[in-house]
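Entry 14. Ran structure prediction on the chain below.
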Amino acid sequence: MSLYKRGDTWWIRFSAPSGERIRRSAGTTDKREAQEYHDQLKVELWRVHRLGEKPRRTWQEATVRWLREREYKAGIKEEKAKLRWLDQFFGDKMLNEISRDLIDEAAAAKRKEVSSSTVNRYLALVRAILRMARDEWEWIDKIPRVRLFPEQGKRVRWLSPEDVARLLSELPTHLADMAAFTLAMGLRQRNVSYLKWESVSLERGTAWIEASASKSRKAIVVPLNKDAMCVLKRRLGLHPKFVFTFRDKPVAQTSTKAWWNALERAGIEDFRWHDLRHTWASWHVQNGTSLQELKELGGWSSIEMVLRYAHLGGEHLKTAASRIEGTNLAHSNQKGRLRLVVSN
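Output, structure tokens:
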């Protein structure tokens, strides 16, 4: 039988002209609509087989292939979460049915929940998948234009040493140690949460992040400064495997009630855990660390990623600016031409 039910939903089942067995949901509880979908699909598969037309692909097929090809990438869990949310708009659509209007509808719905910059991360994912389907997989010939919301400059929120001292004094011990280590090393939260003793050498004063745990997918070796060493020595013997634990488990979540309550008691507003990394980077630049050095210390993949901190450290330019001191450009009263006046 070509049509059958699973629960309340109709499914279709038949053999395509190529011999492939087709079995998929019609996505409807209406038998007439299911029959129409069945007939349309049979005609489509006949045209693909006999006339050489491209088969129509679904958004679901595209997301499955996208995730399969990117399973080794950092941030794949976040992408899966975004795709689950997008499924309510695109889940039952063929790729050539995804229009600009439908994308704008999804963007408007998400904009009610989050900021424009966060919505843009969803839109960028949709755009990337559609471009891949067109340019790499050759599943479709054209795609709609995806318009992103305008964004303000990258957010850089950092604390003064006095603010940090107040915050650390209000945090419970496990979070205080993690925060102090982050401020000393600039590591991302996940790398601190799951740091293992086997990845630390107190003798050599180094720690390393495996490529599989690095956002850039490159192994990172970081030197331990005195502040980081002090934190590690306090943690020695508390757990045989992980450096930072609470109730004998890694501290997977840092933005907890304890974190927000400590911020409130310390009188600090608009500050996230990731801003500890911003604080670390800002302190470095303000104390003379070059952007190239900061890039290597922080494990960023490109210098563009650290340019957001450039405005915090202009001290290194003072020497360059002073090289032409004593040379003045003055206007001449004759014919409006410039006259170079060199003062000795």
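The chain has three domains: 3-51, 59-135, 161-317. Will compare against last week's run tomorrow.
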